[in-house]
Write a structure and sequence with these properties.
The structure holds two protein chains of two kinds. Chain A is an all-beta fold. Chain A is built from no helices and eleven strands. Classes of the chains: A mainly beta, B mainly beta.
């Protein structure tokens, strides 16, 4: 079982604010992922990283950015939050055989 | 067409029933197959994974992959109300990110 943490769990913020969603894992996994998921809807891959200093955009166009300076840490940043960014953001890291382990998620509400 | 197709349901069954959840995929390079369970407002949790064709059993859960027909199945025996969740299938070639199905919402009624 992977240990993967996300903070904050819930965030309510005003339009135009800069926010950073934190994700960290203690398994030493090289590959990490960010997904966006609206309630009852499918997962959308927005960013991924295959290791330190490696970041790629996913299938869903996103105004967020990510960085990977340390193996265990993969933060996601929104420079200027908008109501359209309201969603749940899920972080995952990859273990054996391509299996991904998810964090508990951050539920973001932009007013 | 998505690379992994999954009927979103919802699927409602009585307690004790055998549940069959299914996905199809189109990428012949896929060789890793997984099932995730996601409770409401939680992150998905890995339930089963298999490599290549065949069956894998874990308690009440059986995952089945048929690469010839590109068909993935999850069977739940003696279903319980606690099994009520959304089940997502996922596949990968190993060189690219996992591709997830849309998820099937399951309700087990006591």
């Amino acid at each position: 079982e992977a240990d993967i943490y996300q903070t904050p769990r819930y965030l309510v913020i005003g339009t135009g604010k800069k926010i950073t969603l934190e994700c960290s894992q203690t398994m030493g996994h090289d590959k990490m992922y960010w997904y966006q998921q609206d309630p009852g809807m499918e997962l959308h891959l927005i960013h991924y990283s295959y290791g330190v200093n490696s970041t790629e955009k996913g299938d869903l166009s996103s105004e967020s950015t990510v960085s990977r300076i340390r193996t265990e840490h993969f933060p996601l940043t929104l420079e200027s939050a908008r109501p359209s960014h309201t969603s749940q953001y899920l972080c995952a890291s990859e273990g054996q055989l391509g299996s991904q382990y998810f964090g508990p998620g951050t539920r973001l509400l932009v007013l | 067409q998505k690379e992994v197709e999954q009927d979103p349901g919802p699927l409602s069954v009585p307690e004790g029933a055998i549940v069959s959840l299914n996905c199809t995929y189109s990428n012949s390079a896929f060789q890793y197959f997984m099932w995730y369970r996601q409770y409401s407002r939680k992150g998905p949790e890995l339930l089963m994974y298999t490599y290549s064709s065949g069956n894998k059993e874990d308690g009440r859960f059986t995952a089945q992959v048929d690469k010839s027909s590109k068909y993935i199945s999850l069977f739940i025996r003696d279903s319980q109300p606690s099994d009520s969740a959304t089940y997502l299938c996922a596949s990968s070639s190993g060189n690219t990110p996992l591709v997830f199905g849309k998820g099937t919402r399951l309700s087990v009624i006591a």
